[in-house]
Amino acid sequence: xxxxxxxxxxxxxxxxxxxxxxxxxxxxxxxxxxxxxxxxxxxxxxxxxxxxxxxxxxxxxxxxxxxxxxxxxxxxxxxxxxxxxxxxxxxxxxxxxxxxxxxxxxxxxxxxxxxxxxxxxxxxxxxxxxxxxxxxxxxxxxxxxxxxxxxxxxxxxxxxxxxxxxxxxxxxxxxxxxxx
Amino acid sequence: xxxxxxxxxxxxxxxxxxxxxxxxxxxxxxxxxxxxxxxxxxxxxxxxxxxxxxxxxxxxxxxxxxxxxxxxxxxxxxxxxxxxxxxxxxxxxxxxxxxxxxxxxxxxxxxxxxxxxxxxxxxxxxxxxxxxxxxxxxxxxxxxxxxxxxxxxxxxxxxxxxxxxxxxxxxxxxxxxxxxxxxxxxxxxxxxxxxxxxxxxxxxxxxxxxxxxxxxxxxxxxxxxxxxxxxxxxxxxxxxxxxxxxxxxxxxxxxxxxxxxxxxxxxxxxxxxxxxxxxxxxxxxxxxxxxxxxxxxxxxxxxxxxxxxxxxxxx
Lengths: 180, 315
Description:
The complex is a heterodimer. Chain A is mainly alpha-helical. Chain A has helices at 14-22, 26-47, 53-67, 77-95, 111-124, 128-138, 144-151, 155-176, and one strand at 2-3. Chain A contains eight helices and one strand. In chain A, α3 packs across α4 and α6 (128-138) crosses α8. Helices cover 30% and strands 31% of the residues of chain B. In chain B, strands 2, 3, 4, 5, 6, 7, 8, 9, 10, 11, 12, 13, 14 and 15 form a 14-stranded mixed beta sheet that branches. Chain B is globular and about 65 Å long. Chains A and B meet through β1, α2, α3, α4 and α5 of A and α1, α2, β1, β10 and β11 of B. β1 (2-3) of chain A pairs antiparallel with β1 (34-35) of chain B.
């Protein structure tokens, strides 16, 4: 079955969708897929080469689909899915035979692309606590409240990570003389 | 920078943030169609339906009987990296695997990961189901690298159960049943009879027979803190040991202090609260009175504010 449900912009009916998907409802899982795609994509983009993120993100959702019955609390779905994504990224690194710098995984063909890669590399060099939140905000376009809803993190933690992370990112970019 | 715009895109747009959003937004991706596996459906003539239904029912009954009564035959592959004292290349449920001083082995944990078995280790395969991959480590050392959703891989030790929450970790058990867990990536839950420790990346936790898991600590915590934790957890160190722990704690040691909230009683619990509150923000809804009373929702609320991974999914 190919899922092509239109993308949702907000988390809608989260617990009910998870419960339905756990009971085998593919359409419900399709809605979760679209609601959480950006979160999973962002978590992976922090950690793996960019050209492999989409495939790995699909792996994460397939793994979630197969193991959803093991999730005890539907309300815990966001954190559970985020953990699967982090595990998949870690496993990818472990299995990878060739050591590849994250920011150099794709040939840079134009100036905007180079700018994007430079900014991404700057974020990837920040401490763990800030990288994910910044990428979800700046790359995936999620707001602070949306990041909290999707990851299961407390809004206060997201707010702190965004502000401290942005301060560090600005210092990093200024230090490099980057024009982004 | 406009705080409102940075937080929820309300208020005056911040030019610097807008520029970064524009530059980095190029890296966003649209979700491709997802092909979920589903069972094959084979059309058949109507007249065969009744016969097929009877046959299917019979098969179902026989299969159920076999599943309930069969001995578990599932096995995991074993490869020997040095030596092969037992010569065993497959490990079945109920069987033991032992390495001597000169041998190492690697066990393929179903389809979800690997376990490296160090020399002088003795372990047994307890379960090999898709929802329960379980080893019992009697002594020695293993390194588990699991890539799967949480709570599919378990290791029983003489003094605690290690539950994989998605991770890479090392677990040692000595001849007295004392265990040491070190997590390299992700999280592990260490539990005995309701006493539970959540051990995160870069942290360790000791467990002892008759007590269960101690308080988790980061490997880079001070020597004095770690020694005091040992006294507090396993040697009746009491308030004197706690005093050292509190004095030596950094913000990063909030993981340790949070666990101590559940392992102390007033007035010690109040002292732990005061130290933790001095190191990390106290979220709205968390009060000293509720914490000292041991209110679990309050402790959960504070955990979520520690900047560690959200913990609701593993409980």
